[in-house]
Amino acid sequence: MSTQHTLLVFNLLPVASNISTWWNFGSMLLSCLALQTTTGFFLAIHYTANTNLAFSSVIHTTRDVPYGWIMQNLHAMGASMFFICIYIHIARGLYYGSYMNKEVWLSGTTLLITLMATAFFGYVLPWGQMSFWAATVITNLLTAVPYLGTTLTTWLWGGFSINDPTLTRFFALHFILPFGIISLSSIHILLLHNEGSSNPLGANPDTDKIPFHPYHSYKDTLMLTLLMTLLFITLTFAPNMFNDPENFSKANPLVTPQHIKPEWYFLFAYGILRSIPNKLGGALALLMSVAILMTSPFTHTSHTRSMTFRPFAQVMFWTLIPTFIIITWAATKPVEPPFTTIGQMTSIMYFSFFIANPLLGWIENKIMTP
């Protein structure tokens, strides 16, 4: 497609005139997806899915392959940037009621679940100490499924323990799932353009629209430039900021780390899992911590779409943000008081937001109705 045709498409894509910077994170996520796909393909051609060679192949890529260290760190750092952007994207959707576009929201939530599965499989591939034990803990949750748990776990492992078949399967899934993510992203964008973007006021966007280019394409370019600048500054000065020191050692099934934890972007769900002593209850809570997002379009009771004019809902939302951060922080600590108590309290507060939001909507409707 020529530049003129591209500009014509952008000009024929009218959007609301009052869309703020929070709406730029969608295009930033597409850029992160492109970055992860490109660097991931480069790393895949140098990776060996074998428990004896996987760790060495990663070291070889980093040290011996020309520019391999850049690709390796870009892929690892890009995953963190991806999740930072997606969590902000979801928070914006919750605050401004973007979930009222049901098809768009449900496709986005499905995309999030697929992305988290892909990131989990990728985290195991370096076959570091923390990768191995995080995979052991998380995959063992399947054994909590009544009747089928042991069968499912054995099938996922490809045997009776995590070994070569497990690593081969995880590598295959980590390579294949991005194609599904690209397809889901295309569906998500098509549904979005069909429904139209929401706006901060929650008003009907059809009343005042402007062309996407140049009014919003320039804002996207600016935000993308800032994102890439931040990514490369972090890559240059703190490339291991998000890496666990345990993962710089090769996996050893005979030595258990003092504290097992996944990557930071899974810690909120892991913290909720840890807060419930029962194994099946913890596994269900972990799934619900993400799946509960799908309920938002069906539990919205307020006459107002956005929280801009809902003070009670704003209080709940701005309580949810520090709650999310505290759960993440508590999950990095040992399973002992007071961290277990903090995890349990914040887990209750996390789910309370999704329960209280429809109740607050009903109360606000009563107050605002003359």
TrEMBL record:
<dbReference type="InterPro" id="IPR005798">
    <property type="entry name" value="Cyt_b/b6_C"/>
</dbReference>
<dbReference type="Pfam" id="PF00032">
    <property type="entry name" value="Cytochrom_B_C"/>
</dbReference>
<feature type="binding site" description="axial binding residue">
    <location>
        <position position="89"/>
    </location>
    <ligand>
        <name>heme b b566</name>
    </ligand>
</feature>
<keyword id="KW-0999">Mitochondrion inner membrane</keyword>
<keyword id="KW-0812">Transmembrane</keyword>
<keyword id="KW-0830">Ubiquinone</keyword>
<dbReference type="InterPro" id="IPR048259">
    <property type="entry name" value="Cytochrome_b_N_euk/bac"/>
</dbReference>
<dbReference type="InterPro" id="IPR030689">
    <property type="entry name" value="Cytochrome_b"/>
</dbReference>
<feature type="binding site" description="axial binding residue">
    <location>
        <position position="174"/>
    </location>
    <ligand>
        <name>heme b b562</name>
    </ligand>
</feature>
<feature type="transmembrane region" description="Helical">
    <location>
        <begin position="342"/>
        <end position="363"/>
    </location>
</feature>
<dbReference type="InterPro" id="IPR016174">
    <property type="entry name" value="Di-haem_cyt_TM"/>
</dbReference>
<keyword id="KW-0472">Membrane</keyword>
<dbReference type="InterPro" id="IPR027387">
    <property type="entry name" value="Cytb/b6-like_sf"/>
</dbReference>
<dbReference type="Pfam" id="PF00033">
    <property type="entry name" value="Cytochrome_B"/>
</dbReference>
<keyword id="KW-0349">Heme</keyword>
<dbReference type="GO" id="GO:0045275">
    <property type="term" value="C:respiratory chain complex III"/>
</dbReference>
<comment type="subunit">
    <text>The cytochrome bc1 complex contains 3 respiratory subunits (MT-CYB, CYC1 and UQCRFS1), 2 core proteins (UQCRC1 and UQCRC2) and probably 6 low-molecular weight proteins.</text>
</comment>
<feature type="transmembrane region" description="Helical">
    <location>
        <begin position="70"/>
        <end position="92"/>
    </location>
</feature>
<dbReference type="GO" id="GO:0046872">
    <property type="term" value="F:metal ion binding"/>
</dbReference>
<feature type="transmembrane region" description="Helical">
    <location>
        <begin position="222"/>
        <end position="242"/>
    </location>
</feature>
<comment type="function">
    <text>Component of the ubiquinol-cytochrome c reductase complex (complex III or cytochrome b-c1 complex) that is part of the mitochondrial respiratory chain. The b-c1 complex mediates electron transfer from ubiquinol to cytochrome c. Contributes to the generation of a proton gradient across the mitochondrial membrane that is then used for ATP synthesis.</text>
</comment>
<keyword id="KW-0496">Mitochondrion</keyword>
<keyword id="KW-1133">Transmembrane helix</keyword>
<feature type="binding site">
    <location>
        <position position="193"/>
    </location>
    <ligand>
        <name>a ubiquinone</name>
    </ligand>
</feature>
<keyword id="KW-0479">Metal-binding</keyword>
<feature type="transmembrane region" description="Helical">
    <location>
        <begin position="104"/>
        <end position="125"/>
    </location>
</feature>
<dbReference type="InterPro" id="IPR036150">
    <property type="entry name" value="Cyt_b/b6_C_sf"/>
</dbReference>
<dbReference type="InterPro" id="IPR048260">
    <property type="entry name" value="Cytochrome_b_C_euk/bac"/>
</dbReference>
<dbReference type="InterPro" id="IPR005797">
    <property type="entry name" value="Cyt_b/b6_N"/>
</dbReference>
<feature type="domain" description="Cytochrome b/b6 C-terminal region profile">
    <location>
        <begin position="202"/>
        <end position="370"/>
    </location>
</feature>
<keyword id="KW-0813">Transport</keyword>
<feature type="binding site" description="axial binding residue">
    <location>
        <position position="75"/>
    </location>
    <ligand>
        <name>heme b b562</name>
    </ligand>
</feature>
<feature type="transmembrane region" description="Helical">
    <location>
        <begin position="170"/>
        <end position="192"/>
    </location>
</feature>
<feature type="transmembrane region" description="Helical">
    <location>
        <begin position="311"/>
        <end position="330"/>
    </location>
</feature>
<feature type="domain" description="Cytochrome b/b6 N-terminal region profile">
    <location>
        <begin position="1"/>
        <end position="201"/>
    </location>
</feature>
<dbReference type="GO" id="GO:0016491">
    <property type="term" value="F:oxidoreductase activity"/>
</dbReference>
<feature type="transmembrane region" description="Helical">
    <location>
        <begin position="132"/>
        <end position="158"/>
    </location>
</feature>
<protein>
    <recommendedName>
        <fullName>Cytochrome b</fullName>
    </recommendedName>
</protein>
<keyword id="KW-0249">Electron transport</keyword>
<dbReference type="GO" id="GO:0008121">
    <property type="term" value="F:quinol-cytochrome-c reductase activity"/>
</dbReference>
<dbReference type="GO" id="GO:0005743">
    <property type="term" value="C:mitochondrial inner membrane"/>
</dbReference>
<feature type="transmembrane region" description="Helical">
    <location>
        <begin position="28"/>
        <end position="49"/>
    </location>
</feature>
